[in-house]
Amino acid sequence: MDTRASLSILLLLFGVSQASPLTRFEGVFVSEPEPLDITTRILESNNGSSEVLIEGDLVFPKTRNALNCFNNNCFWKKNSNNIVEIPYIVSGEFSYNNKLVITNAMSTFHSKTCIRFVARSTQSDYISIENKDGCYSSLGRTGGKQVVSLNRQGCVYHGIVQHELNHALGFYHEQTRSDRDEYVKINWENMSPDMAYNFQKQNTNNQNTPYDYGSIMHYGRTAFSIQPGLETITPIPDEMVEIGQRQGMSNTDILRINKLYGC
């Protein structure tokens, strides 16, 4: 092969790598999408979903918040070894690489908290991870089969999997916590009035943890905006603070899980 042909091939390969970045998950490289914030990715995937969703990806009805669940009915239970085992199954519709992304996302819970996602055998309460019409979950432990939807076309990414699993553990979005008005400004004029319910504050017990702009549970600046580019959420007092990241759980996300579940 002559030098010009070799150079052409190298340039072609470089171009492909730049157009479709690859992320490594346990020895397997998986193509990542363009770097959209987590809100945009989730809301695009949920557009037209048959489910009735609140805050974009919480299955209605939203009846409780695990942070105020004093009777423990919506917590997953600890075993005698102080481990919280959450049985789960994964639909056969997911590819091998899809399943690697899901298990890799779960591994952070396993290494940083007392949460363990374990293969279901006969347990009556369990999570069923399915390829449905969007990215969404119920809030906390609901009893029986509990669907976490991760559509193959837009949801099977590390940060989104962790986001939905956190909902299943009992966590709302960060921007709806009780003291959010001290940290973000909600620009009501930039959203349709019938979307305002998605920004309703919750009566949360914040576990003496700081507001976390970097939480995997924080939506991005343009969530539910009436047009592209208009901000519905603006950090204060520093408007330049990043929100809506989708890389993975923050240290504060991990701290809250450990506090809530007494790890």
From TrEMBL:
Binds 1 zinc ion per subunit. PANTHER family: DISCOIDIN, CUB, EGF, LAMININ , AND ZINC METALLOPROTEASE DOMAIN CONTAINING (PTHR10127), HATCHING ENZYME 1.2-RELATED (PTHR10127:SF839). Residues 1-19 form the signal peptide. This is Metalloendopeptidase. InterPro entries: MetalloPept_cat_dom_sf (IPR024079), Peptidase_M12A (IPR001506), Peptidase_Metallo (IPR006026), ZnMP_hatching_enz (IPR034039). Keywords: Disulfide bond, Hydrolase, Metal-binding, Metalloprotease, Protease, Signal, Zinc, Zymogen. It is an enzyme of class 3 (hydrolase). GO terms for biological process: proteolysis. Its cofactor is Zn(2+). GO terms for molecular function: metalloendopeptidase activity; zinc ion binding. Its EC number is 3.4.24.-. Pfam families: Astacin (PF01400). CDD domains: ZnMc_hatching_enzyme.
